[in-house]
Write a structure and sequence with these properties.
This protein is α/β, with parallel strands linked by helices. Helix content is 25%, strand content 19%. It has seven helices and 14 strands. The strands form five sheets. It has a three-stranded mixed β-sheet with strand order 2-1-14, covered by helices on one side. A three-stranded mixed β-sheet has the order 5-6-7, with helices on both faces. Strands 8-9-10 form a three-stranded mixed β-sheet, covered by helices on one side. The structure holds arginine. Arginine binds next to loops.
Length: 283
C-alpha cells in the first residue's frame, strides 16, 4: 500500500489591511473608439450589464470591509469607469493623470477636482503623459512605473519628485498589455504577480532581482486580464476566468475573490482598472 502524504506548504499568514478605493459607475460606458487592441467599436456592448458587473465589484470591496468612494460619471467619457487611470495617490499626496489620447483627456480634470475636494490636494501633475495607477503601482516603498504605450518615461521621474517615492521604470512590449496594471499585480508590500511576456528582457531581469518569489502568471491568465487584480494583502479580487492564477494565489496563502467584468473587458479593462486606491498620510 502506498500512502501519499499531502505536501505541507508553510503558508505565510496573509493579513488584510482595510483600503479606501475610488470607483466610477459605468453609466455611460461604451466602446466608441479604439485606443488599445481590446477595443472594437463595431462589437456590441451591454451598458446595463456593465453596470451590474461593476456593482458586483463594488459590493465585493464593501463585503471585504473596504471604504468605497464613488465619482460622478460624465456623459461622453465612456472610459471614465477606469478610475485607476485618474491619478496616483500615495501618502496623502495626489498626482493627477495626463492622458495620452484626446478621447480621455477631459477625464483628468474631473478626477483632479474630486481628489482636491476629498482633501488630497494640492494635486500635482506631470507635463509628460501619465495614466495614473494604470502605469504606477506601489509595492511597499517602491513605485513600479510602466512605459512603452501610455505613460512616458519622463513622467516617472516627475512622479518620484512629486510623490517622494522611489520609482523603478519597467518597459512594456506587448500592445495587449498597454498599461502596467494589465501585466503585473501587487499582492502585498513585497509580493507581486506578473506575466513575463509583457516586459522587455531587461525589465524582466529587473523584476527577477526585485521579486525572486513572484507569482508568474500564464499566457492564458494574462490574456483574460487576470493580473488586473486588486489585493488588500490577503484577498485578491480578480477575473473569474483566470483559474490557474487563482490556484497559484491560493497555494501562496492568498484568498482569490473572483469577479466577472466581461463587458468592461471589451474596453481592455478589469478589476484594477476600475479601482483607484486612495492612500492617506499613514498608508
Ligand atoms: N479603454 C481604456 C483605455 O484604453 C481602458 C483603460 C484600462 N485601465 C487600466 N488601468 N488598465 O484607456
Amino acid at each position: 500500500m502506498t500512502v501519499t502524504l499531502p505536501v505541507q506548504q508553510a503558508l505565510a499568514p496573509r493579513v488584510a489591511r482595510p483600503r479606501r478605493y475610488l470607483l466610477c459607475r459605468p453609466e455611460h460606458f461604451a466602446v466608441t473608439y479604439a485606443i488599445n487592441p481590446w477595443m472594437d467599436p463595431t462589437a456590441p456592448v451591454d451598458a446595463a450589464r456593465a453596470v451590474a458587473q461593476w456593482e458586483g465589484l463594488r459590493d465585493a470591496y464593501v463585503a471585504l470591509g473596504h471604504r468605497v468612494d464613488v465619482l460622478e460619471p460624465v456623459l461622453g467619457l465612456p472610459d471614465m469607469v477606469f478610475a485607476a487611470n485618474g491619478g496616483t495617490v500615495v501618502g496623502g499626496r495626489a498626482l493627477a493623470a495626463s492622458f495620452a489620447f484626446p478621447e480621455r483627456q477631459p477625464e483628468a480634470a474631473a478626477y483632479a477636482q474630486w481628489l482636491a475636494d476629498a482633501g488630497f490636494g494640492p494635486v500635482g501633475t506631470t507635463d509628460a503623459v501619465n495614466e495614473g495607477e494604470g502605469d504606477f503601482l506601489l509595492v511597499g516603498d517602491l513605485l513600479l512605473a510602466g512605459t512603452g504605450f501610455r505613460t512616458e518615461r519622463a513622467a516617472h521621474a516627475q512622479a518620484q519628485e512629486l510623490l517622494g517615492v522611489p520609482v523603478v521604470s519597467l518597459q512594456l512590449v506587448d500592445p495587449r498589455y498597454y498599461h502596467l496594471d494589465t501585466a503585473l499585480a501587487v499582492l502585498d508590500d513585497e509580493t507581486v504577480a506578473y506575466y513575463p511576456g509583457a516586459f522587455s528582457e531587461g525589465s524582466r531581469r529587473a523584476l527577477e532581482r526585485l521579486f525572486p518569489d513572484a507569482v508568474l502568471a500564464s499566457a492564458h491568465d494574462a490574456s483574460v486580464l487576470g493580473l488586473n487584480a486588486v489585493s488588500d494583502g490577503r484577498h485578491v479580487v480578480l477575473a473569474a476566468a483566470a483559474t490557474r492564477l487563482q490556484e497559484q494565489l491560493a497555494a501562496r496563502g492568498f484568498v482569490p475573490v473572483p469577479v466577472d467584468l466581461s463587458e468592461l473587458l471589451k474596453a481592455g479593462g478589469g478589476a484594477k482598472c476600475c479601482t483607484l486606491e486612495l492612500r492617506g498620510a499613514t498608508a
